[in-house]
Amino acid sequence: MHLLTFLKDFCAFNFPVASEFFYRLYHGIYLEDLGAAVVVHSKDFTDYIRLKKEDDFALKVPLEFNNPSINFKVAAVVHIFYPELAAELKNLLLNIPCAVDVYISTTSPERKATIEKVFSDFDKGRLVVKIFENRGRDIASAFVGFKEIYKSYDVCLHIHSKKSPHAKMRLAGWRDHLYKNLLGSPEIVSGILNIMANEKVGLVFPQYYDPIRISINWGKNYLLTKNFLSRLEIEIDNRHLIEFPAGSMFWFKPKALAPLLDSDLSFEDFPEERGQVDGTIAHAIERAFLFIVESSGFIWTKVDGAGLKSSSQAELDANILQTWHSVLKKY
Description:
- The radius of gyration is 19 Å and the shape is globular.
- The strands form two sheets. Strands 7-6-5-8-10-9-11-4-12 form a nine-stranded mixed β-sheet, sandwiched between helices.
- It has two domains: 1-26, no CATH class; 57-329, Spore Coat Polysaccharide Biosynthesis Protein SpsA, Chain A (Alpha-Beta Complex).
- Helix 1 packs antiparallel against helix 2 (16-27), helix 6 (174-183) crosses helix 7 and helix 8 (222-231) crosses helix 10.
- By secondary structure, the protein is α/β, with parallel strands linked by helices.
- 34% of the residues lie in helices and 18% in strands.
């Protein structure tokens, strides 16, 4: 193993600050200060702009006021490649405080049988389990395999059985962070649905897991993302702030992703599965989601579950959230 690679992963497990230092060293990174943001220059990646951590924020969930009842028709679209996580996902979905139809994709008859057994007593709504070819992972399954379902729902959840075998130590808590921020309790889910009740909000995703924050960049995906968005008649360049739902788990309104859902995207657009960690059309689409939301006339926001934030992470409380809703109504 390359010495710098080993040191980067070892220090990520023990000392996040050291991890960022070695990540920058490994990729030849230097920063150009823009005030609230920085331009990141690297020998490996396309230059990118991102917010400084102290100038980033998330809306705090659960909300600290009584939520009005929400009458959304809700679906959860779940990709389960690792059936050993099926029971955990089922229990999380039970935290959705309303009826929910669940659409599950997987990649083999054996996995399908295991998943159906685990979900056999799920009674919150319709359950559909389908097998799709093993390419494009959760992205292709959700936005190609199940693309026809979205016209029937107001709000949807996109989630999957995530593991990160390429960086087990550094990203050991990432899945738990994403799951808890999206589905950690009925109160958290209720708060998210209340946020999405604002007609302007099209997508909600978790605040970044600290060890992944340094990786919020284009990676090897800038041209892939730019070219994919051009297919949807959306133009970007690398002077746009880079933000995306890292890990590809989020709540969304189908109308906010209409350009993607109405596109001619197919399974054939995705490469065969070879354990790729970057540089595929799935990684590009992950970076495209928020641009699609904005082009559709919606905004997006991050949420942070109580007890999950780091001490330096900005957070908006209930009073600010109510003001935020009022401001949005003026536009």
